[in-house]
Structures are given as C-alpha cells and as structure tokens.
Design goal:
binds NADP nicotinamide-adenine-dinucleotide phosphate; Rossmann fold; 12 strands; 5-stranded parallel β-sheet; alpha/beta
C-alpha cells in the first residue's frame, strides 16, 4: 500500500522544500494544498481518515506547514478536532521548518554546554523558527529574551510562546545593530533566527563580549545573521565562543525532518510537534 502524505500549507503555495523532504523521508506520494485554513481543512481531513481501515490507515499522514506559526498551530488544532475514535492519522506540524530547525539548533547547543540558568537572546525571534527556539531554550532552563524590529511584535510573540509552552520569555526591541548589540550585551547564548539574507549582528557586537559562550545562526544565505561566523560552523571555536552556522545546524535539521516523516507512517496516531521533535533532536544530536 502506498504511503500518502497530505501537505496542508497555510501559505499561498504548498512548500517545495517540505515536499522534497517528505519524499526523502519515505512518502511514496505527496499532495500539497495551499492556503488551507481551519475553516477549509475539514473535508481534507475526512479524506485521510475515512479511506483506509485498521493497520492500513498508518499509510496516510498529514504534514502542516507555512510561514506563520500561529496559523500553523490553529490548523493543527482544527485537524485534531476533526479526529474521533480510531478515525485519525499521524500529523506533523513544522511551519517553515520551525520545529525541526529550532530543535536541531538548540539540541546542538544543549549538547555543547549546559543551558540551564544561562541568559539566551533569540534575535528576530518572532518568526516560526525563532519562536520555537525560544521555547526550547526556555524549557532547558535558560532565561530567554526575543528581539523584533518592533517591540509590540516581540511582546506579542513572547506572550504566544508563554501561552503555548508555559515558559517566561521577554520581548524587546531590536530594530537596528545598536539595539541588537545592547540586547546581547549580557547574554551567554545568542540564537539568530532572522529572515533569509538579513544580517542581525555585526562581529563587533560579540567577538569581544566575555559573556557570550554560544552562537547559533540559522540563516544560510549571505550576509549571514551573525557576522564573523561561517555557515558550516558546527561547534567551531571563534573568539573563545562556540559557533553553529546554518549549514552546521541544517545537517541535523534535515536528518530530523526526514526521520519524523518516516515515523508518521509507523502508526496512525502519531503527533510530531515541538515536544516530540525536540526529544528526537536530542537523541539524534
Ligand atoms: P521569517 O519568519 O522569514 O523571519 C524571521 C523574523 O526575521 C521575522 O519575524 C522578522 O521579525 C525578522 N526580519 C524579517 N526581515 C528582516 C530584516 N530585513 N531585518 C531584520 N529582521 C528581519 O523566518 P523563519 O521562517 O522563522 O526562519 C528563520 C530563518 O531560518 C530564516 O533565515 C530561514 O531561511 C532559516 N531556516 C534555516 C533552516 C536550516 O536548516 N538552516 C531551515 C529552515 C529555515 P520582525 O518583523 O519581528 O522584526
């Protein structure tokens, strides 16, 4: 029986990246739907739960993606609400690679050094990856601050993380290099989670800072998020700090993403969201 993955994307196009990784993770056929909302997802879910019975059902699974964490979470809630009794299939939520990328990055940091009690700053922490990274750092016992170009967005994202994960996160303004340098002044961990190709921190803001011990950056496209580290860094020592670049993190991210896709087809009631994906990342790191 063919392994069918249905990709429900909250964006205007179903993600090419998620489609490729789904095939590489073991799906035989991937069907992407774009612009899916909680109001329109019901019939799509029905198609996954009423078509195969018993053990065969585990050959059908759902992946939720898109560039908005809040929309992804709302879609997951709507999908789960549609399930009843044995009428369910395995689901993974990974809006813009949020869970897999953040989990890979934080798991590598946690393997390198103890995070508990450390001060962590997630630069541009309002996107899907940054919000999840902040949550994982908070769950590891770090004191977490996120920045945004606007304080309101930082505070709104911090509140959303707190509501979902029960960890305290502070939101501060980080509109320019000076504000972001100020935000990381006392930090021990800096996790740059900005949009692709956006530099967030000049080398002068971290190279001589004695507090900073760990640096992570998930932006792979030059200019990188953190100036002075390399995309391929994977625990590379730079100015007395350990640096992890986007490709250094990306290797584990891809392995993790593929592994989660494979596990979707091992049962019909699997859920792969932040907690499950981070636990697997720590095993794989
Ligand atoms: P995103 O939503 O596109 O952007 C994250 C945040 O960056 C936004 O919320 C925005 O925050 C800020 N931002 C946008 N443009 C900016 C600019 N010009 N200058 C400063 N800040 C800016 O990002 P995402 O989807 O969470 O992904 C985060 C990063 O991870 C991206 O670089 C993505 O390419 C990368 N990624 C890496 C991997 C990997 O394996 N390495 C996998 C997936 C994704 P405010 O508007 O609040 O300031």
């Amino acid at each position: 029986m063919k392994k069918l993955l249905f990709l429900f994307d909250t964006d205007a196009y179903a993600s090419v990246f998620d489609t490729v990784v789904a095939y590489d993770g073991g799906a035989d056929r991937v069907t992407g739907y774009a612009g899916v909302t909680p109001d329109t997802v019901g019939a799509l879910v029905d198609g996954t739960i009423f078509t195969r019975g018993g053990k065969d059902k585990q050959n059908t699974a759902i992946f939720i993606g898109g560039g908005d964490m809040g929309k992804g979470e709302a879609l997951l809630a709507a999908v789960k609400k549609r399930f009843f009794g044995p009428f369910k299939v395995s689901v993974m939520l990974d809006s813009n690679g949020s869970n897999t990328t953040a989990a890979a990055g934080v798991a590598l940091l946690a393997k390198a050094k103890k995070l508990k009690g450390k001060k962590a700053v997630v630069l541009a922490g309002t996107g899907p990856v940054g919000m999840r990274a902040a949550a994982f750092l908070g769950q590891e016992g770090a004191e977490v601050t996120i920045t945004s170009r606007t304080k309101d967005r930082a505070e709104a994202a911090a509140k959303a993380i707190e509501t979902r994960f029960g960890v305290k996160v502070k939101g501060v303004a980080g509109a320019d290099d000076a504000q972001r340098a100020e935000a990381v002044k006392d930090a021990n961990i800096v996790y740059a989670a900005g949009a692709i190709g956006a530099q967030l921190l000049p080398a002068s803001a971290w190279e001589n800072n004695p507090n900073i011990q760990l640096l992570a950056d998930v932006n792979a496209q030059p200019p990188l998020g953190i100036e002075g580290i390399d995309a391929t860094d994977k625990g590379k020592e730079r100015h007395g700090k350990l640096a992890f670049g986007a490709l250094g993190i990306g290797g584990l991210k891809l392995k993790l993403h593929r592994a989660c896709i494979g596990r979707l087809f091992e049962s019909s009631d699997g859920l792969f969201d932040a907690e499950e994906i981070y636990a697997l990342a720590k095993e794989m790191a």
